[in-house]
Amino acid sequence: MGFEQHVPAADQAAFPLRRADADGIATITLDHAPSRNALSDAMIAALSDTLDSIAEDRGIRVVILTAEGPAFCAGHHLKEMTARRADPDGGAAYFADLMQRCSALMQKIVALPQPVIASVEGVATAAGCQLVASCDLAVAGAKARFATPGVNIGLFCSTPMVALSRNLANKHAMEMLLLGELADAETAHRFGLVNRVAPEGEALAQARAMATTIASKSGHTLAIGKRAFYAQREMGLEEAYDYAAKVMAENMMARDAEEGIGAFIEKREPRWQGR
């Protein structure tokens, strides 16, 4: 059982994505080909609202983020941004607000209780590359391409840098940021930006296979683990171990941990209760 959210063509610019739910997996599809799925004001708002809805949905255990068309996401909507230079302040207030809203969106993905898998075909550039790096997992089609090309147009990809530097080795991140060149899927895999490279056109199928495996786990446990992963990463070694030990001890008291361990001992499938 599931549902798919259909958006009339007339409303697509205002809500430029689709959501479909099935078997504990929510699939969000960026769907605004004219802008190459750019992170316009409308796209940021729609994606943020959709993530808010999913965060409260106990029936969803995994999220897949994918896109229609030849581009996964072209980054910020440069024409929309340029138009704001006509503002009395030259666009300064708008640009500051836009970067804050985009940064909040990326943090919302990290804070989402459910794991998020990016499924990438085509190009993911600038803030689109940041979007991929912000997801917990990523699968790229063989012809996918990634870049942080802001340096080529006088706009260093400073906010994408935050996500890249937390996924890639320093020199790999700096290579992407300083050269501004397109990296192919195999390079992105070698750099650590994506987990797997699928044959062209099969990234979504592989992402769904991963999501299906994850969705078979306890949603309560997944949320505990994702939250703890990102929290401990910002700590020193001793603090991280102290924190993780407390989390694991508390996790042991969860009903799903009791059920899962019991099912393993009894050699049967667990019956998750989400608590």
Automatic annotation (TrEMBL):
One of its GO terms (molecular function) is hydro-lyase activity. GO terms for biological process: fatty acid metabolic process. The keyword Heme does not apply. InterPro entries: ClpP/crotonase-like_dom_sf, Enoyl-CoA_hydra/iso, Enoyl-CoA_hydra_C, Mitochondrial_ECH-domain. The keyword Ribonucleoprotein does not apply. Keywords: Fatty acid metabolism, Lipid metabolism, Transit peptide. Gene3D superfamilies: 2-enoyl-CoA Hydratase, Chain A, domain 1, Lyase 2-enoyl-coa Hydratase, Chain A, domain 2. This is Enoyl-CoA hydratase domain-containing protein 3, mitochondrial.
